[in-house]
Amino acid sequence: MNVLFINPKTEIYSRSVTAPLGLLSIASFLQAKGFSVRIFDRTVQKRTLEEVLAEFEPELVGISLVSYYQYHDACDLSRRLRARGTQVIWGGALASCLPQAVLNTGLLDAISIGEGEQTWLELATAKQKGQSDLTGIKGLALRDADGKMFFTAQREFVDLATLPDIDWSLVEVEKYFQTTYGCKRMLYLYAAKGCPFNCAFCYNKEFHRCTYRKRPMDSLLREIKYLVQNHGMDGVYFADELFCRNVKEMHETCDALQSLGLNFVWGGQTRIGIFKEEDFRYMFNAGCRWIFFGVESGSKRMLKQMNKRIDYDKIEQTFAACQSAGIVAIGSLIIGLPGETEADARETVALIERLHTPLINLNYYMVVPGSDYHQQLLEEGKYPVIEDVEEFNKYFSMQQKLLDNYSDLPAIDMKVIRAVYMWRSFRTNDLNVGGERFSFTKKVITDALKSVKTGDLKGFIISSWDAGLEFLRTFYYAHFYRKVKQKYGIR
Ligand code: B12
Ligand code: SF4
């Protein structure tokens, strides 16, 4: 039986594309169980749906919805597939966290909530047997005869040791390479899933139920070896929410990566307070060249409110230790958190200035369905129950437009603060990465050009326009608001 998985086009063209790891994992699993599978990744493939269907007649189609940016394409594909009588089921982070609104489109048969492997094995088996009743399959959101949504029993997490190796021949690997610190052919892979913490802005509690699972090391090593030897991969970004919980896990991972004896560098995302300078040196020797740290805020009050549970006093120390070991330290912070005041934002600015890293990823706060803040804002009547995905976008689009603001900060202040640090990151041209000079400007331009190449003509025009506007906007806000900068102590 044929099962097709589709990664819809995204409407943010200026971002570099990554391989759809979730779809790859589900497809590899089904394939190992004897089903015939294909992945149609519309972020990199220029073929039409009709061309794909002419070659491969699927009886069941899975469509991924990671964010609103994929929504319009997902709807269009669903409409066309269902018109041919094909069963269509959506999955992925956003579909799982916003099931009511997604089902309300009336364009799909069900949503596969959370982790997809086992659910899809059961869905494909049921289809093969001609069973149309899906209510016995765990992990689904369905609609009853009156159109009312209901959930089947909760799906338990899969034991990652039972999953087969990811079959990278299902996608065109070369299309996903990115330039980053110390490498030119970097791919996203994953080594673990979930995180034991529960920050109020994050989807982790709902999606991973605060669990943390490591992928079997031998499977990860085989994957890296395959990609280095067959495709010339020279860098890995471990897309895990948390790369290693402690020093012991880090040593095991570093030793295993080094045991491959291959030439590649890597990076990941970790927490403040786990590692000291000697640990960062250990990681550097095993090929680590960059680390993202979720700092989130410089205000102790905000960190407490969001339940971040990091040791404030270790933030600067950790950045200094990481940089002194030769690893690029990147700070990820949020501005515009619920209830954030100008005094809180001043503390964030002060902390950023003390970190001495040119690379700061400062995002506007955005309500994530499934997070504690989302629940709190719903209860306070500040955020609506989303019945329509377009409605969700009104709030989501705050990323650029700041239509909604849950903080006490004027929108213009947020724009200026964010622009200042984006501009500084963009202008970083002399980073020392393992002895080599690295230009962030060059990376941004290279990735943008690559995404232009992989998109279509419409994508090319939109991306050029978007990137140009973003550049001008950032320059403008970063340079023409001296009073705002003074107010927050920005140097
Ligand atoms: C890689 C990544 C990306 C890549 C692209 C991913 C993609 N192919 O679309 C890039 C860097 C481009 C990216 C961009 C964005 N991302 Co992102 N990204 C990730 C990241 C770090 C890893 C995802 C991954 O590959 N994991 C490994 C695989 C194996 O696990 P998985 O993806 O969870 O897949 C499993 C299940 O989700 C499910 N599943 C997944 N897809 C599907 C599809 C079907 C049909 C089914 C049935 C099941 C299913 O089954 C899979 C196997 O078990 C996650 C955080 C994380 N660690 O998970 C954030 C994350 C998914 N991203 C997120 C966000 C918000 C974004 C952006 C909107 C950010 C922005 N503001 O620009 C954009 C939107 C991109 C888009 N495609 O629309 C959020 C989503 C939150 C939410 N609930 O909505 C996450 C969870 C980060 C976070 N903690 O907030 N992202
Ligand atoms: S923000 Fe990071 S540390 Fe906090 S719950 Fe989410 S994944 Fe875990």
Average pLDDT metric: 92
Number of helices: 20
| Name of the top-level CATH class of the largest domain | Alpha Beta
**Terminus-to-terminus distance:** 62 Å
- Helical residue percent? 40-55%
Strand content: 15-25%
CATH superfamily of the largest domain: tm_1862 like domain
How does the overall form come out from the CA principal axes? globular
How is this structure best summarized?
By secondary structure, the chain is α/β, with parallel strands linked by helices. It has helices at 21-32, 49-55, 71-83, 93-97, 99-103, 117-128, 204-207, 217-231, 247-259, 277-285, 300-305, 314-324, 342-355, 372-379, 389-396, 398-401, 411-426, 440-454, 457-479, 482-488; strands at residues 2-7, 36-41, 60-64, 87-91, 110-112, 140-143, 149-151, 178-180, 183-189, 192-194, 212-214, 235-238, 265-270, 288-296, 328-335, 360-364, 431-433, 436-438.
Characterise this structure:
The protein has 491 residues and is α/β, with parallel strands linked by helices. It folds into two domains: 2-151, Rossmann fold, CATH 3.40.50.280; 177-366 and 402-488, tm_1862 like domain (pyruvate-formate lyase- activating enzyme), CATH 3.80.30. Helix content is 42%, strand content 18%. It has a seven-stranded mixed β-sheet, sandwiched between helices. It has a seven-stranded mixed β-sheet with strand order 8-9-12-13-14-15-16. Strands 10-11 form a two-stranded antiparallel ribbon. Helix 9 (247-259) runs parallel beside helix 10, helix 10 (277-285) runs parallel beside helix 12 (314-324) and helix 18 (440-454) runs antiparallel to helix 19. It is globular. It starts with a strand and ends with a helix. The mean pLDDT is 92. Bound molecules: cobalamin (B12) and iron/sulfur cluster (SF4).
